[in-house]
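[step 3/7] inverse_fold.run input=structure_tokens len=339
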């Protein structure tokens, strides 16, 4: 839970010094934000997130969160005095929405799933619930909340839109089937375009339209988190372990994969700045998840029992145990790294 608290602190410190009193939260993304859509989607016949130890520390039962407790979005809701944001697929027909909805799906990508099937790697995807699907869900819900542009502007001006984290799985899937850093760097512009850019590209069009639509419908504050330091994650340390000590930084993280995350984040921040210039009336906030998570690896002794795991980061056997215990959805070797 420590890393989630750090990410939440990062988020809360990122919003304005005199934040709006939000009435609702609308969330899009992957498993860092999914509060139950993946579990309810039936994408996997026997998803392990539907069983303990998932949910055991706080909810005392599995909720569909890829965590043993709460997620960043849960702490954000608590911070602003709002109820936990329900997953879209849990809503009953005709149910009145008062405090927002969560459209995030574990395993989701920013790019449409068609992109990955055309590249021949669609078979390892957990879900087709990409942002294009989440957008469609939002559009269906929006039609029940407001009708005219002015109505929607008034309705959403006191809403917080959490747009991600998203994009990490766009890289995970290709990396896990042998994609190189160079190959994946060529994918970064497409993913960033899909998240924020006002420029139309064939694969990135859906989320480009989505972001613009949120702002044009009156969204006052949007938070767009960056990617995490993937070179510090157990799955990357397991799958891409190296006998060369120079491959690791002082914290035992794989340097080249962290450099890749930083490259994505740099491109994302540049694109967000262009979006701010296009929509000066909106507050578009970058949340530095990378920096928040990195604190955990730079100073593990400040964060309780997690230090035990970090001090053993080079121990391949321990990492493999963690991979298999936490999230083994695909094939006993590929772990869900978005938790």
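[step 3/7] decode complete -> sequence:
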């Amino acid at each position: 839970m420590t890393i989630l608290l750090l990410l939440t602190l990062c988020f809360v410190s990122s919003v304005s010094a005199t934040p709006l009193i939000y009435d609702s939260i609308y969330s899009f993304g992957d498993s860092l934000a999914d509060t139950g859509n993946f579990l309810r989607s039936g994408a996997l016949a026997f998803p392990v997130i539907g069983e303990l130890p998932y949910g055991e520390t706080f909810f005392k039962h599995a909720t569909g969160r890829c965590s043993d407790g709460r997620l960043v979005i849960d702490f954000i809701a608590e911070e602003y005095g709002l109820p936990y944001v329900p997953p879209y697929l849990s809503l009953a027909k005709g149910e009145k929405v008062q405090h927002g909805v969560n459209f995030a799906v574990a395993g989701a990508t920013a790019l449409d799933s068609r992109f990955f099937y055309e590249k021949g790697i669609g078979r390892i995807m957990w879900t087709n619930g990409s942002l294009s699907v989440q957008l469609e869900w939002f559009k269906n819900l929006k039609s029940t909340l407001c009708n005219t542009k002015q109505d929607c502007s008034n309705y959403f001006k006191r809403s917080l839109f959490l747009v991600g984290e998203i994009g990490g799985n766009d890289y995970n899937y290709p990396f896990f089937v042998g994609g190189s850093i160079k190959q994946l760097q060529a994918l970064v512009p497409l993913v960033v375009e899909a998240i924020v850019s006002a420029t139309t590209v064939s694969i990135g069009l859906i989320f480009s339209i989505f972001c613009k639509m949120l702002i044009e419908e009156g969204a006052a504050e949007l938070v767009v988190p960056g990617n995490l330091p993937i070179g510090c994650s157990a799955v990357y340390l397991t799958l891409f372990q190296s006998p060369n000590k120079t491959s690791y930084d002082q914290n035992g993280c794989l340097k080249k994969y962290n450099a890749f995350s930083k490259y994505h984040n740099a491109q994302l921040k540049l694109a967000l700045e262009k979006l701010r210039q296009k929509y000066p009336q909106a507050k578009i906030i970058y949340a530095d998840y990378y920096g928040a998570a990195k604190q955990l690896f730079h100073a593990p002794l400040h964060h309780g029992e997690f230090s035990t795991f970090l001090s053993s980061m080079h121990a391949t056997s321990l990492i493999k145990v963690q991979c298999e215990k936490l999230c083994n959805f695909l094939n006993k070797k590929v772990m869900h790294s978005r938790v």
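[step 4/7] annotate
Residues 192 and 268 are 6 Å apart (CA to CA).
The two ends are 11 Å apart (CA to CA).
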